[in-house]
Amino acid sequence: MSIPVAWPQILDFFGTPLVIEPASGQLSSDAGLLPVRQFDERLGLTRAFAAALDDPRDPDLMEHTFLEMVRSRVYGILAGYADQNDHDTLRHDPVFKLVAGRSPQDDGLASQPTLSRFENAISIKSLKRLRDVFLDQFIASFDTPPRHLTFDLDAVDDPAHGHQQLTFWHGYYDHTKQSQHP
After folding, report:
1. Does residue 14 sit in helix, strand or coil?
2. CA angle, corner 68, sides to 86 and 51, nearest 5?
3. The dihedral formed by the CA atoms of 11, 14, 15 and 18, expressed in degrees to the nearest 10
4. What's this model's pTM, rounded to 2 decimal places?
5. What is the DSSP letter of 59?
6. Chain segment 11-61, per-residue pLDDT in tens
7. What is the CB neighbour count within 10 angstroms for residue 178?
């Protein structure tokens, strides 16, 4: 009995076809991000994400695009690197360079301090546009757009006991609940 091998795999999101196949040396432990990046290329989600954000930086002083930084953070979080401090190492990882749109031979991606400034510079106006991007993407996922949507914003039953501050009556659960947002 012969078991078909799934390798090599060819991805085309980088412009030049990328061939993924097993190798004896370890270049990165995050190659699983490459097919996710291919899928993102079809959806355009990180591109739309970056386009929704205001970039207050001086264009003459920019070394990293918003799209690269969005992809660095999004793919870092997807790979389990929620802390920005991981990005000081990941910025040189060949897979992270590829998913951000750089060649593995190019200079490193944005450092942790740069990513921190990037995240802290995002305005409320940008976040509202980003919300609209996510809603539009969600609605576009239906063959026929839904006539209405129901969002369950308080799906956790968290009863409060006694006379605690910041509690309110929750009619669905029929008891007093602790407020999640003071």
Report:
1. coil
2. 130
3. -40
4. 0.70
5. G
6. 777 777 776 666 666 567 788 898 899 899 988 999 999 999 988 888 888
7. 16
